[in-house]
Design goal:
The protein has 734 residues and is α+β, with helices and mostly antiparallel strands. Helix content is 44%, strand content 24%. It contains 31 helices and 27 strands. Helix 17 runs antiparallel to helix 18, helix 22 packs parallel to helix 24 and helix 24 runs parallel beside helix 26. One magnesium ion (MG) binds next to strand 24. One magnesium ion (MG) binds next to loops.
């Protein structure tokens, strides 16, 4: 940078007057400083003779005195200045700079040269107009006997000076080349919204090249109404700097619609820089097209709120819709609305018979039938499985909701065509519908969904394929069923489940093993028998985690019991077909054995005969696979005799044991019954199967000749099911 020595001097030196008079105090080195101080020029003299703004400040930054010029530079009255700390007048980033300067000056041998460029620095000062102003500054120590203070000289840079012009040109060049490297549009506007600078990327965002746009109004880059709506907001950025935006609740960026010359309207995001005041006040806007991001966001939102299979809204979307509906209800802008809970009847059978693919197609078809039946303004959701939910947003009276329900029954009730392996079949599916009217049957999300669900249970209870409108006196059994199904979802985490063990004896002799039987102590309803909740758990899928917990718990209990009592009791665990049908069932059992350390030869899995008959191929495959991993785990057919298994089928299963159903034992010594038991025993013997006589209550039953051919017996005659602690006592008392 070339500039005359004089010019430089004029710039660097705070004032000519200082050169002559006060400057004698703004000394250049330690010796001179000592002289100046020893000259004892009072600070007031220095302040009033300086031609620049001078603030006398303490080491901690407090302003002690300020001359008149400084009050003009900073646009603050002397009395206001004197109350402040210099740190209140400059942005945070400059605090360290000033502190460092002051610290350096307290070191002996430290020189300050008002003619030396390095000793000058730029300081941004906060003025009375609430804007920052860039000042040139120099700081000098002023030592008296009592204390060390500082003179902070500030003056506004002379904009006409060559040096400054050169500097500005350089800054501008840097700025321009930087703004050319970025893909966002960089646009500088003045206070009248005239565009005074635009970079090349402006064409990408707005379709205008920079020459075309400079000089035009910012307005052309937006749809008209959008610009007028946002202009007052944009204007604020001219007056509020970055650091202060949080305090006045202004974001650093703004999202709005912009207009591209060729492509039309699209979403954009503008980030605002700090405004500058040079010849005029300007504002830098960095603008990007966010259409792509918005599209991605929209797609993600859609995925999060929709069911992939049917494309209907999911549970989360329903929650959001129903909540906003209730907001409207509370502001009384809507009258009656209706919520339908739908559950398909007979879907599970179709799914089991024809497979998942066919099941999925039925669900897709059902979604379409619902769309065809309902109006555009009605909302349809799928909650998973075969549960659908319909929200009729406008219903005048209860009869309207009932009419819609009838239409749905009719439409969904029509038979479905299923294509499987090139073969066409027809399947009939019904639907049970529960209706709750809004706001009559609930004024919040939870109540209304519970009541619609309850009404749906009632429809199922009443014989399915019908609708029921919620009322307080819905059948007791529907409420019970609902309570059970809902309670099952949290029973494990609430630790409401526990196990009992029923001893199994070698015929007429000592205990040989136990059967684990699950118990549920419901928070409100007390003990619920397994016969009530196991089918419900199977229906709603909670049998999987529950069954898993039973296996883990029972294996652990019995392994510990065997160790404690030095025994080798076997453990029989009831397994549901839902568990058995899991593709990874063998691996699950393997996991349990590894985790609990139970000996595989002591583990017996009980599978009910009727269940076995439902899906024999699949079950056989899984059982065979389990047997490959753990040949010593044995399989028991529970409640044998009820399911009428075919002989040939039984011989193909990897089964070691059957349990004769309690109903046969109960009827001893009825002669026809005895014939059945006898044939079961013969069959088992011919297949080499072990037999357990289950439900033995009396001596007569136990002593029966045929029953005595069973190797094992279980029943109240020995013991009722016991908690693990009672079981230990039972064994010890034997
Ligand atoms: P189950 O496997 O046939 O179990 C035998 C049932 O007969 C038990 O009923 C037991 O308490 C009862 N019982 C035993 N001896 C006698 C007797 O002498 N007289 C009479 N009247 N009853 C006797 P509980 O505990 O109510 O279990 C009922 C059914 O629930 C079980 O029948 C089983 O199918 C199912 N279950 C129990 N626990 C589980 C489990 O953890 N998982 C699965 N999937 N099912 C279970
Ligand atoms: Mg059993
Ligand atoms: Mg049984």
């Amino acid at each position: 940078m070339a500039h005359s020595k004089d010019k430089q001097k004029q710039l660097k030196s705070p004032s000519a007057a200082l050169d002559k008079t006060s400057r004698g105090t703004m000394v250049k080195n330690q010796d001179e400083q000592a002289i100046a101080n020893s000259m004892g020029l009072p600070s007031d003299f220095i302040l009033s003779n300086a031609v620049d703004g001078v603030l006398q400040i303490k080491e901690d930054g407090r302003i002690m005195k300020a001359n008149t010029i400084s009050t003009k530079v900073l646009d603050l009255a002397e009395k206001n200045l004197k109350k402040k700390s210099i740190y209140e007048l400059i942005p945070k980033e400059y605090h360290l700079l000033l502190k460092k300067r002051m610290e350096e000056l307290t070191h002996p041998g430290m020189n300050v040269d008002v003619d030396r460029e390095e000793d000058l620095f730029l300081l941004r000062c906060y003025t009375g107009k609430k804007v920052y102003k860039t000042c040139e500054a120099i700081i000098l120590p002023y030592k008296t006997d009592q204390e060390l203070t500082f003179f902070l000289n500030i003056w506004e840079p002379d904009s006409s000076s060559e040096r400054l012009v050169d500097q500005l040109k350089e800054v501008q060049k840097n700025y321009e080349s930087l703004s050319e490297t970025i893909s966002e549009a960089v646009i500088i506007i003045d206070e009248s919204f005239k565009i005074i600078y635009a970079n090349s990327a402006t064409i990408r965002v707005f379709g205008y090249n920079k020459k075309e746009i400079i000089g035009k109004s910012f307005e052309v880059l937006f749809p008209e109404e959008i610009f007028y709506r946002y202009a007052p907001e944009i204007k604020k950025y001219f007056y509020v700097d970055f650091d202060d935006r949080k305090d006045v609740n202004i974001k650093d960026h703004m999202e709005l619609l912009g207009r591209n010359k060729n492509r039309g309207v699209s979403p954009i995001e503008i980030s605002f820089g700090n405004s500058r005041e040079f010849h005029e006040r300007t504002l830098t806007c960095i603008i990007r097209d966010v259409s792509h991001r918005k599209n991605v966001e929209r797609k993600l939102r859609y995925l999060a709120y929709h069911d992939k299979l049917t494309d209907l809204g999911n549970r989360d979307l329903f929650a959001s819709d129903i909540n906003s509906l209730f907001e409207q209800v509370s502001t009384r802008s809507i009258g009656l609305a209706a919520l339908f809970f739908l559950d398909l009847d007979g879907f599970k059978q179709v799914n089991d018979t024809f497979g998942h693919q066919a099941g999925d197609e039925i669900l897709i078809e059902t979604a379409q039938r619902l769309r065809d039946t309902l109006r555009e303004s009605d909302l349809i959701y799928r909650f998973g499985g075969d549960e659908f939910v319909v929200l009729l947003t406008k219903v005048n009276q209860r009869k309207d909701a009932e009419l819609v329900a009838r239409k749905i029954l009719d439409k969904v009730g029509k038979s479905y065509t299923i294509d499987k392996d090139g073969e066409r079949s027809r399947a009939s599916i019904g639907v049970s519908i529960g209706i709750a009217l809004i706001p009559l049957h609930g004024a919040d999300h939870e109540t209304i969904t519970r009541n619609a669900d309850l009404a749906m249970y009632s429809a199922k209870e009443n014989g399915k394929n019908q609708f029921v409108v919620f009322s307080e006196d819905l059948t007791h059994s529907a409420k019970n069923k609902w309570t059970i199904e809902q309670g099952l979802k949290t029973a494990l985490t609430r630790q409401e489940m526990f196990l009992e063990y029923q001893p199994i004896h070698l015929n007429g002799k000592e205990i040989a093993g136990v059967e684990a039987l699950i118990r549920w102590k419901h928070g409100i309803q007390g003990i619920i028998p397994p016969e009530l909740f196991i089918p419900a758990a199977e229906e709603n899928g909670t049998i999987i985690p529950i069954g898993h917990w039973v296996l883990d718990r029972a294996c652990m209990d019995i392994r510990l019991l065997n160790r404690k009592l030095n025994l080798n009791l076997f453990l029989s665990v009831n397994i549901s077909t839902k568990q058995l049908n899991l593709p990874n069932f063998p691996e699950l059992i393997d996991g349990v054995i590894n985790r609990t350390g139970i000996e595989p030869k002591l583990l017996k899995l009980e599978i009910t005969e009727t269940f076995l008959m439902e899906n024999p191929e699949k079950v056989t495959a899984n059982l065979n696979r389990l047997k490959k991993i753990h040949p010593d785990v044995s399989l028991v057919i529970d409640d044998f005799g009820k399911g009428y298994s075919s002989l040939s089928y039984l011989s193909r299963l990897p089964v070691e044991c059957i349990k004769i159903d309690r109903s046969f034992i109960k009827d001893i010594p009825d002669p026809t019954n005895m014939k059945v038991i006898s044939s079961i025993v013969n069959l088992a013997q011919s297949l080499g199967l072990t037999m357990v006589a289950e439900g033995i209550e009396t001596k007569e039953q136990q002593d029966n000749d045929i029953i005595r051919q069973c190797q094992l017996s279980q029943g109240y005659i020995h013991s009722r099911p016991l908690t693990i602690n009672k079981l230990v006592q039972y064994i010890q008392n034997q």
